[in-house]
Design a protein that fits this description.
Chains A, B: Pfam families: cNMP_binding, HTH_Crp_2. The structure is a homodimer. Chain A has about 250 residues and is of the alpha+beta class. Chain A folds into two domains: about 130 residues, Jelly Rolls (Sandwich); about 90 residues, Winged helix-like DNA-binding domain superfamily/Winged helix DNA-binding domain (Arc Repressor Mutant, subunit A), CATH 1.10.10. In chain A, the strands form three sheets. Chain A has a four-stranded antiparallel β-sheet. A four-stranded antiparallel β-sheet of chain A has the order 2-7-4-5. Chain A has a four-stranded antiparallel β-sheet with strand order 9-10-12-11. In chain A, strand 4 and strand 5 form a beta hairpin. The radius of gyration of chain A is 18 Å and the shape is globular. The N and C termini of chain A lie far apart (about 40 Å). Chain B binds a DNA duplex (30 and 30 nucleotides) through helix 7.
Chain lengths: ~250, ~250
DNA sequence: CGTCACTTTGAATAAAATCAAGAGTCGTGG
DNA sequence: CCACGACTCTTGATTTTATTCAAAGTGACG
């Protein structure tokens, strides 16, 4: 339960960067966001930020690391429903719904801003921010559908390939890629719980992708050696992410 | 491409009934809804109502039959992402997003209301309706997450059991159950594309549920012979549907 | 009464889970 | 600096689950 004061200059906040990708922001908008991103805390891996059954309020923004939405079965099996990567905001103003149907927790060490309900309301006063947050939420929902397709109708190798392509697009949008590689600070077990497989099977499927020369992984950095071919394998069409940049660099 | 004029008295519209389940409606609200439900058309099974890539606008309401959201792979594989049962409304006012990322189509013959953008805007003028629609949308999203859990982390038999439990709750909310049975006007192939399996495997799994005495199916009517035990098998917790009625009748 | 779509069944195959053990990694504390 | 312990990753052998392929059987409906 490390809790460090969020010091240092907010490094051109990823949330800001992401929302700017949806449309021009005014000075006042960026100022409000900067304020939010200044108030972050470092959270260790494996920490729940809000739990199933809790009453949701405010928002949670991730500025570093990977967090996720997940549910557990009684036997301990976990299904991850979404990744929250830097720039992603989890809007807990669910208005009508007063209970979380899932848990949000960190997969890696994360830098996180917990946004109080009043602050969240203030943010939504800014039309451009409100629009951006709404668009982000709609994209999250489209992503959820894509994940359902992924698990329901793609093979193990395809599932991983698709996930890696998606992450390249999402992380590039917040400037966290270098070429076709990015930090993927999660374990194979996490990947398994994301794609509905076993960690053993993930391991073998990763091996296959490596053998095919499609990816490389050293330490926690993932490189897509041939994004075009990887996208083809996964049948990846990035439209649902609503980013105008072309897929492969 | 049968298109019949939507005659006859709107039979206490399922949309109305569903939204009433979320909170009291004023006279004016119900009147507006009644108007909508009067303008329905009969649509044959297998008809796309709006396609992936189309520009979404207005709303689509289903008052009879089963429709669904789905996507296709290049090889023809289909993944169904959601069911639209009577009372369900598909809000296409996606504001920011200007392309459908999936298709909405009928699984059975359906009675459907296509709601023009202006009409949709009028409906949203009514605060109670707007709230109801918003709540419905949030529940749809929670349902999507539950489906991801279903496909990712449950066995074939469990997936079907879970789906059948969910449908009992949803259809009961609009008065379309009698006891623990309801019309399920879809094929085993549809069930397969819903649960990420093969129709052959669905057939065998259904057989297992029957043999266990958990369900019965004559013609298109499904009966949950022992809802409590079925829910236990599926680990079904109806919280995400936000209906206060207890699960088993 | 024939057709077409759907359901059911069997046999062979493929994909993924399970079980188990060993090797690598990393942070911690002596 | 090294050793320890806790994860994580890797690999093999085996079993289970699900798909594929194929062929009847059933039923609704014109």
């Amino acid at each position: 339960m490390k809790v460090l004061a969020g010091g240092g200059a907010a490094v051109s906040g990823p949330v800001l960067r992401k929302l700017q990708g949806f449309g021009r922001l005014e000075e006042a908008d960026t100022a409000a966001l900067a304020l939010v991103e200044a108030g972050t805390r470092l959270v260790p891996a494996g920490t729940d930020l809000i739990r199933e059954g809790d009453r949701p309020e405010g928002m949670i923004a991730v500025t570093e690391g990977f967090a996720c939405r997940y549910k557990l079965r009684e036997n301990g099996a976990r299904q991850i429903m979404a990744y929250l990567v830097p720039g992603d905001v989890c809007d807990l103003d669910n208005g009508a719904l007063n209970r979380m149907d899932h848990t949000v927790g960190t997969l890696s060490t994360c830098r996180v801003a917990r946004i109080m309900p009043e602050t969240a309301r203030e943010l939504r006063q800014h039309p451009a921010l409100a629009r951006g947050l709404r668009k982000a939420a709609l994209i999250d929902e489209a992503t959820l559908r894509e994940w359902l397709m992924n698990i329901g109708r793609r093979s193990a190798v395809e599932r991983l390939a698709h996930l890696f392509c998606e992450l390249l697009v999402r992380l590039r949008a917040v400037g966290l890629t270098s070429g076709n590689s990015y930090e993927l600070p999660i374990t194979q077990l996490d990947l398994a719980d994301t794609t509905g497989m076993t960690s053993v099977h993930v391991n073998r499927s990763l091996g296959e992708l490596k053998r095919e020369g499609l990816i490389e992984r050293k330490s926690k950095r993932l490189t897509l050696c041939d994004p075009a071919r990887l996208a083809e394998v996964a049948e990846f069409r990035p439209d649902y992410l609503h980013r105008e940049e072309p897929f492969s660099a």
